Amino acid sequence: MAATTGWDEPGPDAPTGVEVTRRRSAELFVVLRAEDRSSAERDGARDALVHLHLPLVEHCARRFRNRGEPLEDLVQVGTIGLIKSIDRFDSDRGVEFSTYATPTIIGEIKRYFRDKGWAIRVPRRLQELRMQIGAATAELTQSLGRSPTPRELAEAIGCTVEEIVEGIESSNAYSTLSLDASDDSDDGAATMLDAIGVDDEGLEHVEIRESIKPLLDRLEPREKKILLLRFFKNMTQSQIAEEIGVSQMHVSRLLNRTLEQLRTSLEEQG
């Protein structure tokens, strides 16, 4: 008789932390999108999604450490991107939320760095709100043991979430830094401009790539091999025909049929 497995030693079939997060995320999105749920239930699901995915924000923010901005501020900015991702995410597309949200979070942080290079005159109310956000963030971080969400900041300060977001964004103009400035007196020292990444064109196609993966898995081995040889190994149709032992015309028909099948499946998903 097999021995039972305790909490301290999870069995081989026990779900991993990633699987638990993925499952919980899916459940919360169902509540968030359900029209028959109350506003309080949907707001609670939205807040829970923010809490659940804060580690993803912190992971993205750490990529920009040692670039002249406190990690805490980068997490706050990244959280704005997380909230935008939650509001825009469509679970019916079959893409993992973390895959969808990561480009938005990173993009928000990059925009924060770009905006830091501009001197902007901020209204007095936003300057005061920024100070309140800073003080409330410090207190809540200590009491909660983590960075607070915009909703928690709004409740602590007594304003709306939108005002919190506006206050965080206004902090971009709090100080300015030349993109040509460096932390080293040497002429060859790296500048701030060197540290800021450029837009990754590949990120724009993340959703398409993730959507097409399960479709590729359904293809017959020969069709999948033809796609691999054509688009990943850049072989011509004649070379493919020689490789798999069929005519070039047959390769052309198989390739066109497979591409049309993938295109139709993607349109049905959309």
- What is the approximate shape? elongated
Helix content: 55-70%
The description of the largest β-sheet is: none
Question: SSE order in H/E notation?
Answer: HHHHHHHHHHHH
**Rg for CA atoms:** 24 Å
Strand content: under 5%
The separation of the N and C termini measures 50 Å
Average pLDDT figure: 77
| Coarse structural class | mainly alpha
Question: What's the β-strand tally?
Answer: 0
Uncertain runs with pLDDT below 50, 5 residues or more? 1-12
Number of helices: 12
Family: Belongs to the sigma-70 factor family.
Keywords: DNA-binding, Sigma factor, Sporulation, Transcription, Transcription regulation
Domain HTH cro/C1-type: 233-256
Organism: Nocardioides aquiterrae
